[in-house]
Every structure is written in structure tokens, then in C-alpha cells.
Amino acid sequence: MIRRMLFLWCMVGSVFAQEKRVITYEDFIDLKRVDGGSLSPDGRWVVYNVRTYSLKTNTYVSNLFLQSVDGKTTKMLTSSSFKDFSPVWSPDGKQIAFVSNRGGSYQIFTMALDGGEPRRLSDISTEVSAGNGLAWSPDGKKIAFTSDVYPDCETDECNRTRNAAREESKVKAQVIDKIPFRVWDSWKEGKRSQLFVIDVESGKFNDLIKGDFDVPPIDLGGAMDFAFSPDSKTIVFTMNTEKNIAWSTNNDVWTLPVSGGDLKKISTSLGNDNQPVYSPDGKYIAFRSMKRAGFEADQQNLMLYELSTGKTVNLTEKFDRSVGGVNWSPDSKVIYLDVEDQGYHVIYDMPVTGGTPRKLTDKTYDVILGVSDNSMVTRRTSFSMPPEIFVLNRDGSGARNLSNQNTAKLALLDLPAAEEFWFPGAGGTKVHGFLVKPPKFDEKKSYPAIYLVHGGPQGAWNNGWSWRWNPELFSAPGFVSIMVNPRGSTGYGQKFTDEITKDWGGKVYEDLMKGVDYVVKNYSFIDGDRIGAAGGSYGGYMMNWMNGHTDRFKCMVSHAGIMEKITMYGGTEELWFEEWEMGGPYWEGRNKETFEKWSPHNFVQNFKTPTLVIHGELDYRVPVQQGINLFQVLQRKGIPSKFLYYPDEGHWILKPQNGQLWYKEVHAWFNQWLNKPAN
Hints:
Elements: H1 2-16, H2 25-30, E1 33-39, E2 45-54, E3 59-68, E4 74-76, E5 84-89, E6 95-100, E7 107-112, E8 119-120, E9 135-136, E10 142-149, H3 156-168, E11 182-183, E12 186-187, E13 192-199, E14 205-207, E15 226-228, E16 234-239, E17 252-257, E18 264-265, E19 273-278, E20 284-289, E21 301-306, E22 312-314, E23 323-328, E24 334-341, E25 344-351, E26 358-359, E27 365-371, E28 375-382, E29 385-393, E30 400-401, H4 407-410, E31 419-424, E32 430-436, E33 447-453, H5 471-475, E34 480-485, H6 494-498, H7 507-522, E35 526-536, H8 538-547, E36 556-559, H9 565-571, H10 575-582, H11 591-597, E37 611-616, H12 625-636, E38 641-646, H13 656-674
Parallel strand pairs: 33-34, 33-35, 35-36, 36-37, 37-38
Antiparallel strand pairs: 1-2, 2-3, 3-4, 5-6, 6-7, 7-8, 9-10, 10-13, 11-12, 13-14, 15-16, 16-17, 17-18, 19-20, 20-21, 21-22, 23-24, 24-25, 25-26, 27-28, 28-29, 29-30, 31-32, 32-34
């Protein structure tokens, strides 16, 4: 480890004598992606996985790393061409369990830390769901996991037979009698996510939740949606039992004896309840809860359920921020929270007895991975640093980078730190934004700018690295990247978030345009005559809305953007979203007026801005017809336009070579229109 650190420091030190270079997509894809992270029971070690992408193979591998919290030891636990995910510790700290495809399908493996090869534990025909994680029971005997199965199948052999029959059949048609029948970029094919437990010794597993329900729900869950009680006798999880989950966000928290018995619902909200976790002493279950039914971006409150009395207390009712991750101190006296706050993701703590949450970090982006007696481990990031594993004192001080997976590579790159600004938006309300200058910045020069609009719309530009829309890559060719968090953005209080609902092109649009005015007036190096705009999802919608309402931008990039609201309602799998944002189904009351009012297609007569349209065939959140509609209108009107169509991608562009083409075309489009000589 000492030799490794000396090598890193020598590498970093030698770079200071060199001129740093501009980041390329090839540099970007070569950076390591630190995921997951689990703190050992004794608080001395953290295990995490690292994804390594390859342009040549057009995919990635994922391997596991072991890191001592004192920073002295780093060990690569697995080294293979497979995908190893979701590592968790055994209660005695001697083994880890993880999900891997090394056997040809995703299964659970265990691995002793004192040596030896991984041992395959599970053999379930429907595979283990890699993205939902694992939970190891405190007595060390069982591991909980999820798998997508046919709800009417009682045995794994039934699922195996059904899968084989579907695969072998020449008829690929489906008879569908309920929605949603597809989610994000895949078809459900009549399956449901079910909660299983597997015996660590024998490998035998059984389905705890039989029935036509999903555990966890298809959407809006927490970082982890199932956990064992400290005595290993009960499991707590999130499930939505509504018949019509396509327009319901009523996820609830339930408990069930591991040995079998009656389900017990402990949450009462009509909104989204999720991410339950027992206190180490077994007295409480903490979970997150939204109050309003049908809303996916209501404030996430921290609820505390007392097992002995059945009483539930809202610990953050007066705290105007949404709770992210929930982590207990080992003595069960303090709860640690990571919270989205004004463009950052900071850490708070609060006593289990209640009170005002105490802010421990400021202007950082942390996700808590675990808390020990003396420290806490987080995954920290910024606009100019991909996520790394950090250790902090429990008061938030003394942060140290433990993993250093990208330290040497980042030292070679010119990655300007983000600057932030505030300005008066619609009605004088303060609005926040970030700005990233281009590499090799010269304050005497004038630069074109790209105005980036985030999706959601209940989302935000936070000071964290993005593997999809990366401001450093947008700025690399010589552009200033501007990111404003207008109405609807999260992290600025619930009222600010709510002020976009049924007002999609109102105050939010005014905020964005005032943001353009502000940066042009206050940053002399931005050329106000050479500004382009880009956005994805709701950001793509805003490109289409802007095209019908302003000629301020020289060009646009509309990725997965909504063009016509009623056909969007008829095509998306997430009906609750459209119904909340527009006031309900378009045929009820005056809702159709709202759909029509905020539909960009009603303003195509004003379109004139050159636009690059991007859409994926497998996008079931914003179906591809929305992008085709936009492109055909642009072409019919003779507006310069291109359509970058991906037959093998969904809402996001995930394959390395597809991402390379994405940035190539986007950069070329902005270079074409923003670097043209003045007429």
C-alpha cells in the first residue's frame, strides 16, 4: 500500500510540471466508476465495486475492492471479465456476498476474505436482480434478494419451464391485460419482482411474497428496500399492493416473519413510503415517507416507527428538505442523513429523540455508506471528480479519499471547478446556478456557451460527477457550460419544487430566460450572441418549448424530449407522473386545457432554431414517437435539423461506443452553429 501511495504522489507531483490537457471522451470512458460500498461490521474495512468500461468491447467489467478505513491497505478482491456487484458483509466480517454473472447468469456468490475463490450460492432460473442489492441476516444464516418471476408459479421449475417455452416459441406475440407492461427500457412479460431468502449453508431458497405484487415496487423506491431485523426473525420491505400501479405511487412499508406468517403494514401515508431500516437495538424502524398520493417528488420525510407501541413519529416534519439515505449509529441514538441541499448533497445528523437536524458538511456531494463508532464512510463526488470512497469523522470533519481510483488520471486533465451564482427569477424568487469554464480558460477571450436544462423536471444540477450529461465534457471544446436550477428543482424547499406543476412553461421558463440574461450581463467572457441550449427528458421538453417561444439560442439539442403532451400520456409507462403534473387524465374536467396549454406542438408555427434531435427506440418513459414528431416538424418547416436515432438505447445512452457518437455529434452541432463567423 505504501508503494502504491508513493507511486500516486509521484505521478501527481510530476504532472504539476506538465501542462494539463483537455479531457476527451476517450479519457472520460477510461475513468473508473466506483459503485456500491459496504462498511464492515467492525468499521475497519469497506468493500465496493469498480466498473471499467471499454470502447473496444463496447461494454464493461465490474470487480470488487477491499479498502481499510485507515487508508493503509487496498486489495483487489476479484479480477475477471465478469460483472461483480452489490457486495455485502457477513455479520462476522469474515465473508462477503455479491451478485455476479460469472456463471453465465446473475447469481449470488460468497467469498472468504482470508483467501479462496468465490463460491456460487444461488441457482435460480430467473436470476438474481443485480440492481436491488442483497441483505445478509444478522445471525449469518440467510441472505435476502429479489428476482423477477411469474407470480402464478409456485416453484423455480415452473419459472424455468415458462422461460424456456417463451424462448423456444416461434410466436413472440403477447396477450396483455394490465399496465404497466413495460418499464424504462424493458418489457415485464408478465413477471413481478419478488422477495426471496436463501440459506447460506444449503443454497435452498424460497419466495417470501407470493402474489401479483412487486418487491420492491417498479419505481420510486429507496437505495435499499428490504432489511432484516437484528434478531433475524423478521424482514421489512417496500411493496405497492394497489391494483393499478401505473397511476399509483402508494408504496408502503411492510413486515413479515422470515419463517412465514402474516404481513403487517406499518406505514399509513397515501404517498410513497420506502427505504426501511431497523435500528441496531431493534426498537425502531426508520423509513422515508411522502404525504401526497400520486406525486413522485413530494418531500421525503424521515419516519420513526416504534415496534413496542406501533406509534410512528415524523422526525423531519419541520425540515424543508427531502431525506436521502438513512443510516443508524451503532448505538441506535443518532440517525445520519444525506440530504439534497441547494446544488449539493450534504450530511445531517439528528438524535432519535427528535429535534432539528444538524448540518455536518457544507457544499459537498456525499452518499453515506455506513457509520461506525468513530467515523462514517461516504461516496463523494463533484463536477470535476468522479465518485470515490471517503472517510469522515462523525462530525463531518477530516474527510480523506480512501479509494483514489482516478487520482492519477485526473491529475493529467484540465477540469475547471464549478462556480455558482444566484439571481432573481420569476417574481423575484432567488434562483441558483452553476457555471463551468472551458479548459485553458483565458479571461480576456470571449467564449460561446451551452445552456444545459436538467430533466425531471423535479431534479437538479448538483455539484457531482455525471456519467451521462457531463459539464466538463460539454465545456471541453471551448464552451462555457451553464446550469440553472429553475422552478421544479429539488433541494431548494418543497414550495420551489411544487411551483412547476401545471405550469411547465411558466415560471420555470421565466427563471431560465432570466438566467441567460444574468450570466451574459455578469460574465464578460460569455458571448451573448453565441449561446446554444441542450436538455434531456424534461430538459428536451424545454428545448421544444423554447423553440416555440424564443429565438435567443443559436441552436439546440433535444434529447428524449416531449413534443405532444396527449400522445405522451398515451405512450409513457408512468401515468402517475403525467396525471400529477397536468392535474389528472386529459379527458377529465378541464385537464385537457392544461395538456394543450403546455404542449410544445401547439407552437410549431414559431419554431426556427436549428435543432439536433436525439431519441432511443427503447425509451418507454418518453416514447420515440415524440422525437420523430419533432424531427419531422423541423424538416417540414425547412429548419436545419438532424435526428440521431438509437435502435438499441432507451431513455439514456449507455453503451460506450454509442456515447462516443453522442458526444461527437453534439459537439459537432454546437461547433457548427456557435463558432460560425458573424454575418
